[in-house]
Specification:
alpha+beta; Beta Polymerase, domain 2; five-stranded mixed beta sheet; 5 strands
Length: about 230
């Protein structure tokens, strides 16, 4: 099903609109255009942040002969997913409702080599004067009960369009390769299998996370020793 078919089906299922075909068509036309604009705005905000991260990574390469960033991935929630979340929350099917109530439409995951790289990037992102930090969660210093570790922050990012400037929130997750290794496998086990995880297995996964975290700290220490940074 393409986007146009999805919107038509979504609005055909709204009781308030099914009695008036012209109203359905008009509403569909406006909402379809609005969501296209919303997708462009959030996609552009992702590109702004990714560009800045790449600039920082290249600067580190020139100044310190190393790159703090191993990988950058991004994702933009589809209009289908946005509408589904709005419906689930009982909110109006509008871009205004999406922008006011959903902060995870645009996301970036940054994988770093060392824990110190994470906090260096967090500091630089937070100090940029045209970015506004909306929210931050440090799941490295305070891991989730499952053992999950990562640094999360939501930034309000300016996007300069042809006639004006708009802001869009971008959720950023920053983690080490080791943290990403655990999180990816845990997600695969938890959500991509039909079997339910028992408390014993969940405890084993948490223990794995703790051992991996210890390795992360050890690798950081080795790196600092090699580079006379202690």
């Amino acid at each position: 099903m393409d986007e146009k078919e999805f919107y038509m089906e979504a609005f055909d299922n709204l009781p308030a609109l099914t009695d008036n075909n012209e109203s359905v068509k008009e509403t569909f036309s406006h909402v379809f255009y609005d969501f296209l604009q919303l997708s462009h705005l959030y996609d552009s905000a992702i590109e702004v942040v990714k560009t800045y991260l790449n600039i920082l990574d290249n600067e580190f390469s020139v100044k310190f002969q190393r790159n703090p960033i191993h990988n950058i991935e991004s994702r933009l929630k589809s209009p289908q997913s946005i509408i589904g979340k709005l419906q689930k929350k009982g909110l109006p099917l509008s871009t205004d409702a999406a922008r006011k109530n959903l902060l995870d439409l645009a996301g970036i995951r940054v994988t770093c080599y060392y824990i110190s790289d994470i906090y260096a990037l967090v500091d630089m992102l937070g100090r940029r004067d045209d970015f506004t930090v909306i929210k931050r969660k440090d799941y490295i210093k305070k891991p989730k009960p499952s053992g999950y570790r990562s640094y999360h922050m939501i930034l309000n990012v300016p996007v300069y369009l042809s006639t004006h400037k708009e802001y869009a929130p971008v959720e950023i997750q920053i983690r080490t390769i080791a943290m990403d290794f655990w999180a990816s496998l845990e997600h695969q086990l938890k959500y991509k299998t039909s079997a339910e995880l028992t408390p014993d297995i969940s405890e084993e996964l948490k223990q794995c996370a703790e051992r991996i975290a210890e390795t992360d700290i050890q690798m950081q220490r080795i790196y600092m020793q090699i580079n006379d940074m202690e």
